[in-house]
Structures are given as structure tokens and as C-alpha cells.
Design a protein that fits this description.
218 residues, alpha/beta, 45% helix
């Protein structure tokens, strides 16, 4: 079905096209092309997508490679952002990213961090979001996240008695805000929502200073 759809949409765009699924760690589409030919490798997280969603995504991708913009349709967005998508595909995502560890820290507790943030009125619990530690210290960003997989991965470097709880809290809070902003959030609006959430955390400036001094960034 995938190849047939891309062939058909390619013909509509005046291009010969072919497509196959690939086991990427992230949800993405890669392609090679000439002026009249393109070959696509599509993340197998889309293998169970309805035919209409594949058609919409193919049209969006074709428009983008021709330089004609191309926004995701409401149908494709609704399928990608439905809770069932992350519930179904997150286990495979976790298997493929060997850098991701478990939910339990050695010195710090993600659950305790969530409790502090909830107590400050900064978050509401969302059981569809999973938060884990990285297996090793990655440094740089204090955490990373996948909006579509509704997953946050906190740097193991924060799992230390020497790290203030506020640094862990800010890392978690930022990525909760990113996921809450949504998959297709307009960048300026997304940044405003994240900045607003972080600015309401008590002692924000001092914590940011500590993080920068110790090699972490939000």
C-alpha cells in the first residue's frame, strides 16, 4: 500500500516515486531524488496508519520537496497525536534508543519532582506521558523529549545529591510544557508557553545560573 500510494501521488506531481518502510529510531521520512524521480524510506511507526493518513503524509512530503510548503492535514495530525499512537509505538521507540534507561534514579526521584511541580500548581498529572532517565550522563541538555511518543528522558547527570532538586524540576517542567504545546505548535507560541511555565518556577534565575555553571542547559 505504501509504495502504491507514493507512486500515485508522485505521478500527480509529475515525478516517479517509490517508497518502503524502514526501522528508524525516530519517526521520520528520508528520501533521495533527482528532478523527476524520488525514493522514500518511511518510518515503520507509520505501518499501521490508515490509507488516508498515508495519502495525506505523501502529499505533504511531495509538496515540501517541491518547495511548495505543505502542512500536515487535520486527519494526519489527529492520528499522530492520538494517545493510542504513543501507547502503541513507545515500547518500540524505547527498545531502539539504547541511551534510554529506567524510571528509577539512584539519588533523585522523578516522582518526587512531579510531586513538587504539582504542589506548586505548575502542572497537572498526565498519565499518557512517561519520564525516564538516560542510561549514562549525556551532559549538555538537562533533558530531551519526543512530543509524538509523549516521552521525556532526563540526563543521568542530574541524578546526584550534588544537584539541587530545582534543576531536575526545571528540566522536567520544560519538556512537559513542550509536550503540552503539541506536535504542530507554531514556534513562537510554543516558546512563549515554555518560557511562561519556566518563569513561574520559584528561584528560576538562580537555578539557571547553577545549571550553566555545571554544564547543563535547558
Amino acid at each position: 500500500m505504501l509504495n502504491e500510494i507514493f507512486e500515485r501521488i508522485g505521478e500527480e506531481s509529475g515525478m516517479r516515486a517509490s517508497a518502503e518502510f524502514a526501522a528508524f529510531s525516530d519517526l521520520k521520512v528520508r528520501w533521495v531524488r533527482t528532478s523527476d524521480w524520488a525514493e522514500f524510506r518511511v518510518s515503520d511507526y507509520l505501518r499501521d496508519a490508515p490509507e488516508g493518513v498515508i495519502e495525506d503524509l505523501a502529499r505533504t512530503i511531495m509538496a515540501r520537496i517541491r518547495g511548495c510548503g505543505g502542512d500536515y492535514t487535520e486527519r494526519a495530525t489527529a492520528w499522530l497525536t492520538a494517545p493510542e499512537f504513543s501507547e502503541t509505538h513507545r515500547p518500540v521507540y524505547l527498545e531502539r534508543d539504547e541511551r534510554i534507561g529506567g524510571t528509577e534514579g539512584e539519588r533523585k526521584s522523578i516522582e518526587a519532582s512531579m510531586g513538587r511541580l504539582e504542589g506548586l500548581g505548575l502542572i497537572e498529572r498526565d498519565p499518557s506521558i512517561e519520564i525516564r532517565w538516560s542510561k549514562e550522563k549525556e551532559r549538555g541538555s538537562a533533558a530531551r523529549s519526543s512530543v509524538l511518543m509523549r516521552l521525556i528522558v532526563v540526563d543521568r547527570g542530574l541524578d546526584s545529591d550534588e544537584v539541587p532538586d530545582s534543576a531536575l524540576d526545571l528540566a522536567v517542567l520544560k519538556h512537559l510544557a513542550l509536550i503540552r504545546a503539541g506536535f504542530l505548535a507554531e514556534p513562537l507560541r510554543r516558546d512563549r508557553e515554555v518560557e511562561d511555565a519556566l518563569s513561574r518556577y520559584p528561584g528560576f534565575d538562580g537555578t539557571i545560573e547553577w545549571m550553566e555553571d555545571h554544564g547543563f542547559s535547558l
